[in-house]
Specification:
Blueprint (H helix, E strand, L loop, with lengths): L7 E7 L3 H12 L3 E7 L3 H9 L5 E2 L3 H4 L5 E4 L6 H8 L8 E4 L5 H11 L6 E6 L20 E4 L7 H12 L4 E4 L2 H27 L4 H6 L3 H7 L6 H10 L1 H24 L2 H22 L2
Parallel strand pairs: 1-2, 1-4, 2-3, 4-5, 5-6, 7-8
Antiparallel strand pairs: 6-7
Helix pairs in contact: 4-5, 7-11
This protein binds NADP nicotinamide-adenine-dinucleotide phosphate.
């Protein structure tokens, strides 16, 4: 139910996939939007989105798609953001609310600066902390953001009313909205989301390259399933996220490999205290997190 008072006449969604599709489904369910124009890469995906009722109209040209929209949401992979900003910059009306859903924020803001020069007052970068390992509009659903957090990283130019409207947009989807500094967002997300994806991809790849990989996967149990689920995420999306947040991520990966080396040494030497300490500390931390996560 939309109790935020938000009412969008025409929303332009550029990138009608899992996140963008779920966002507009949720806005429709909340009766917060009248008309949705979808823009993207392949005609086939946009046709599917229209058949599913996720968008009302198709406009493949980003500059034409933003015309007359009161809200523009960009939900393409990070590597595609620059071209989209460049294409819409000359066509965007001054009072349009512009937001994105990219998983790293400094690179998005840099791309917007390059395209716009002075950042528009209506631009409020955002990142929903929700998703699945699936991609595409077929995987989108209205409940994706319910009870989940959305981080807004306003720029120095973002106006108070644009920030308030972006908040209302996500609240209408059932999300809890918080604000964060751009570089702080990228550091926090490198640790909580980007690093775990690197570990999952790297573990599954290492095992898959072994000669006995078939047997390993045949006998893999629940632990492997839980740990490896996110390695089915879209490779292009994660390629783009890794490059966009490479400095923060590389530092964490280096720190993690040093810890792994210590663990390997402790295992080889049978250092029982070291192993017990690590596992006990980690279990306590994970149990505390579980309580917080299910609150
Ligand atoms: P997705 O399901 O693959 O959707 C991406 C959409 O963008 C697709 O419709 C795709 O079109 C379109 N697209 C791709 N390249 C394009 C280009 N060069 N120009 C125009 N459109 C293009 O991906 P998603 O999971 O929704 O991710 C979208 C954004 O959300 C990314 O920036 C990601 O970092 C962010 N995000 C993702 C998650 C998550 O868990 N998935 C969570 C939070 C934020 P086609 O149909 O032609 O491929």
């Amino acid at each position: 139910v939309n109790n935020t008072g938000l009412h969008i006449k025409r929303l332009c969604l550029i990138g009608v996939g899992l996140i963008g599709g779920s966002l507009v489904r949720a806005l429709r369910r909340a009766d917060a939007v009248d008309e949705i124009v979808g823009c993207g890469r392949s005609r086939a995906s946009l046709e599917t989105a229209r058949e599913l009722g996720v968008i009302d109209h198709i406009e493949p040209d980003p500059a034409k798609a933003v015309a007359g929209a009161d809200v523009v949401v960009i939900a393409v992979p990070l590597g595609a953001m620059q071209n989209i900003f460049t294409a819409i910059a000359p066509a965007l009306a001054a009072d349009t609310l512009l937001t994105d859903v990219g998983s790293a924020k400094a690179s998005v803001v840099a791309a917007a600066k390059k395209a716009f020069g002075e950042l528009p007052a209506g631009f409020v970068p955002g990142h929903p902390i929700a998703g699945t390992e699936k991609s595409g509009v077929q995987a989108s659903f209205a409940e994706l953001f319910e009870g989940r957090r959305v981080i807004l990283t306003p720029t120095a130019q973002s106006s108070a009313s644009a920030i308030a409207h972006t908040r209302a947009l996500w609240q209408a989807c059932g999300a809890e909205v918080v604000e964060m500094d751009i570089s702080h967002h990228d550091e926090v997300l490198a640790a909580t989301s980007h690093l775990p994806h690197m570990l999952a991809y790297s573990l599954v790849d290492m095992l898959a390259r072994r000669e006995d990989s078939q047997e390993i996967f045949d006998y893999a149990a629940g632990g492997f399933r839980d740990f490896s689920r996110i390695a089915s995420s879209d490779p292009t999306m994660w390629h783009d996220i890794t490059l966009a947040n490479r400095e923060a991520l590389a530092s964490l990966l280096e720190q993690f490999s040093m810890d792994l080396q210590k663990l390997a040494a402790a295992a080889r030497e049978g250092d029982s205290d070291y192993l017990r300490n690590i596992f006990t500390r980690a279990k306590q931390a994970r149990d505390r997190y579980e309580i917080k996560d299910t609150r």
